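Sanity check record (used in CI):
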Amino acid sequence: MLYPIIMAGGAGTRLWPISTKGKPKQVYPLLDNETLLQKTWKRLRRGFPARNIVISTDAQLADEVRRQIPDHTRGNLVIEPSRRGTAPALGLALIKIWKHNPKAIFVYINADNYVQKEEEFLRLLAVAERAVRQKQDHTLLIGVNPTYPETGYGYIKMGSQVMKFGTDEIFEVEKFVEKPDLKTARGFLKRWEYLWNPTLIVARADHFLSLYEKHLPKMWLGLTKIASAIDTPREAEVIRREFPKLPAETIDYGILEPASRMGRKEAKMLVLPGNFGWTDVGHWRAVHDILQQSSLSKHSASKGNICKAGKCLAVDSRGNLIYSLSGKLVALAGVKNMILIESENALLLCPRSRAQDVKKLVENLEKKGMKEYL
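Expected output for Nucleotidyl transferase domain-containing protein:
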């Protein structure tokens, strides 16, 4: 069986001011009455037993995760004492799986992903697991066929075809391209070999941990110290002591990109293209698009405006997202393609095309010491 690892840490800064450090996007009901974490858990439970699903989060969110996912298997909640990035977080979850079954195949899944075609998503996971069973020393990524020229995503360029299962074709990874400019992204959209990279990683635990040893040796050394204490009375104490010492790094920059630069034969990286209605709920434009296109949108969508958690009146206005928690009436006149977000203590206004820049606002708030808004 496949072991899904749900990555449920992180701050979600591009969805400020609703997503905050105390309650980031993955544990907030952004789209409807369920959180993104709950949606991810329910999606995976359709295909996997609870005992196989691991949730990785940080100490600050652990109690909230327990409250939201009460039926998770005890022991399958992996808690980071401090936030060190996705590479240490995955490494900690992997060594716990590896200690019980080194040959276990896992899939890395971000909790903040929205999936419209859930059956197709689960089917592709089964295809990916089948491929890794045949190519046990390979890492497989599931890529997404792009539908528009997104500049905020990473891309995977496919190389030669390696395997085929029915209509599903699996290719070598030729290279990664991180967040291209608009002209480049438009060019990618016209070429079949470029896919969005949602960081859906499928591999054997022992193989992927060997990539830590090769590309992140200092992190690997710390993880081996933790591994020696797993399932002993010292486990919690050793994790608290050793985990904060691990270098801060992401999976993309720490493992995937260095591995891809080794050359195709040495990198042993594969990609399976898919089309399952994937969206990274990483900024407010994505929230607008999901609410507009999906059945979740029971909110006012007249003339193309999405009004969630508030009252709206619009004249000669379209393409706007209004997300207000105050209960005030929001009136629009001659406003197009804007985002207006109101929390208890902050108001955000920006064009939909600048949604990625919200992270810069959060960085400025941190620099100015305005922690009460974070």
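DSSP finds twelve helices and 17 strands in the chain. If this sentence no longer matches the regenerated tokens, the check is flagged for review.
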